[in-house]
Amino acid sequence: MSKTVKKIWNWFTTVLVTAAVLLAVALVGIRIVGFQVFTVLSGSMEPTYHVGSLIYVWDVDYRKLQPGDVITFLLDEDTVATHRIVEIVSDDNDPQILRYRTKGDANEAEDGALVHYKNIIGSPVFSIPMLGYFANYIQTPPGTYVVIFAGFVLLLLFFLPDLIFSANQDKKQQKRRGDLKRPRGN
User: Fold this and answer.
1) Is 42 one of the catalytic residues?
2) Longest dimension (CA), the chain
3) Options 2.10.109.10, 2.60.120.380, 3.30.470.20, 3.40.525.10; which CATH number does 3-164 get?
4) Domain residues of the chain, as ranges?
5) Which of 42, 44, 127, 166 is an active site residue?
6) Which intervals hold domain Peptidase S26 (predicted)?
7) Residues 79-121: tens digit of each pLDDT
8) What are 131-142's pLDDT values in tens digits?
């Protein structure tokens, strides 16, 4: 393999590995520092958060929330929503207990039920459009197989050229020393 081809190949594999690492950090690694990651499944928060976006949610002190803030919260045990606060309602018996009236930016009406402060997961800090589609796909059996296959291909792309280059170098050195036997009949 010529030096130019090897340089191009090294550049190409470096870009691929960097992209894979950045993708892994965006999907999994960011959770290590405390973010929770959710995929936007509906258009209720368009244009703020587009369907298919990944939103990165950070824990928030519910007492510091104000109307206009966006929160991510549990609607029920299995359903998470991200909507904007339109009103904060104190409990008549205990003013420390807060509930939040919310509304999706693209929705005509406010949400039917108030959000109890204990159901607040956090507030979105940033989002990455379209990455949620990929995040959801890799959680399916075919998506898992694709990721495993892509990992093997990436390893091959990264190490195979060095193995080939090394084998060719060994043959050249043997040839220079005369170690390679000539085929019979020549």
Assistant:
1) yes
2) 103
3) 2.10.109.10
4) 3-164
5) 42
6) 17-77
7) 999 999 999 998 888 878 899 999 999 999 999 999 999 999 9
8) 899 888 988 999
